[in-house]
Specification:
Helices cover 71% and strands 0% of the residues. The radius of gyration is 28 Å and the shape is elongated.
Length: 389
């Protein structure tokens, strides 16, 4: 027993790096669960669960590089460390759905996403029960079914299904994200802080890691066996990516979306042209007299309430009457006000960004993007053209 204690644990660059990531992930998951309980945020619960599974999946590599398998040759830990990879894709998708869908609720039908996971866990439990009842089980690391099934054809079958499932859920997640971005422009006048670009970045990074992992597996099985150190990098960077997602998710809670209704599915049915013309005139007069566009957080529901009409009617008027979405409509007034500031010479005493903020923008990135889209050039180029005219 004394020699065992000397051999395990061994702290080296590979085990220590994973151990640090796992510790951070567990602490962050606890914080997410705590906030999920206090504020009833399903998104935090899903993200915390995803982090815990990520930490759990690092266990094999962490204890392996700490010398566990060399020290305890007949260990049965592989039977108990059941991979939960079938849960990762659904959790990423459901987390994104909880963040981007107002008033999202986990329904009974959502459990269907986890049927492959339940089947796989049942399969692994069957292997454990069967192998543990066979003679000589205690004297070897892997029993009959673990060796012949899980490390053979059955294990390869589940691996293929797992790969297909992850690809499908990553595709669904990307589709959901871009649909959300599109909806924002129909509802909010300033969308930059709500666009969740970090989530897009995570999805792209995770897709690259997913492709890298499959290439690595192909090389390992078909070309040349890879060492555990060579395989370690994929596990390390996947953990870093999900930890990044957890940190960003914790510090950017979806508080502005809670309770909002993005359902504008009936916008394609437009009212008569004379009704649109009347609403268009009233809306133009309101925007010019009340200058609602100067409020950075103006959204569709607030403006509709102030006009005394439904948000669907307002959105129809903007779409059909002005040929714009809500975001472009409000920002066109902001750009017009910014241009007025320049023509009056206000740029001599204020920065361009300061004038943009006075015109209703709340983000430099949004201002530059909108100006380029609506005017066809940059704010500084437009100012130079004024000076030369």
């Amino acid at each position: 027993m004394g020699s065992y204690l000397l051999a395990f644990p061994e702290f080296n660059i590979y085990s220590t790096a994973l151990l640090i990531l796992v510790t951070q992930g567990i602490l962050l998951a606890v914080l997410l669960y705590y906030r999920a309980y206090n504020k009833q945020l399903l998104s935090d619960f899903l993200l915390g669960t995803l982090l815990l599974i990520t930490c759990y999946h690092r266990t094999t590599y962490t204890i392996g590089f700490m010398g566990w398998y060399d020290t305890f040759r007949n260990t049965k830990i592989n039977y108990y460390l059941i991979p939960l990879t079938f849960a990762v894709g659904p959790l990423i998708y459901l987390y994104l759905k909880a963040v981007t869908t107002s008033a999202f609720r986990f329904r009974k039908t959502d459990w269907l996403h986890f049927i492959p996971l339940i089947v796989f866990i049942g399969y692994r439990i069957f292997i454990l029960v069967y192998d543990s009842g066979q003679p000589g089980f205690d004297t070897q690391q892997n029993g009959v079914l673990m060796q012949n099934w899980n490390m053979g054809a059955v294990g390869n079958f589940f691996s293929i299904i797992e790969t297909l499932q992850q690809a499908i859920y990553l595709a669904f997640s990307l589709q959901l994200y871009y649909a959300y971005r599109k909806k924002l422009r129909h509802y909010f006048s300033n969308t930059y802080s709500l666009e969740l670009r970090w989530m897009r970045n995570f999805l792209f990074i995770y897709i690259l890691l997913f492709l890298y992992g499959n290439i690595q597996q192909f090389l390992d099985l078909q070309i040349q066996s890879l060492t555990w150190i060579q395989k370690w990098w994929k596990d390390f960077f996947a953990a870093v990516a999900i930890l990044y997602m957890g940190i960003r998710g914790y510090f950017t809670p979806p508080h502005r979306l809670l309770g909002l209704d993005f359902n504008l599915s009936d916008l394609k049915t437009y009212p008569r042209e004379e009704i649109i013309a009347t609403d268009k005139q009233e809306l133009t007069q309101f925007m010019e007299s009340r200058e609602a566009f100067l409020r950075p957080d103006l959204n569709l529901e607030e403006l509709a309430s102030e006009l005394g009409i439904s948000r669907v009617q307002l959105s129809r008027t903007i779409n059909a009457g002005f040929g714009m979405n809500f975001n472009d409509f409000v920002n066109s007034y902001r750009i017009a006000r910014f241009k007025e500031h320049l023509k009056q010479g206000d740029h001599r005493n204020h920065s361009l960004l300061g004038l943009a903020f006075e015109s209703g923008f709340n983000s430099k990135a949004t201002f530059n993007r909108v100006f380029q889209k609506l005017e066809g050039n940059s704010p500084s180029s437009y100012l130079n053209s004024l000076k030369s005219s």
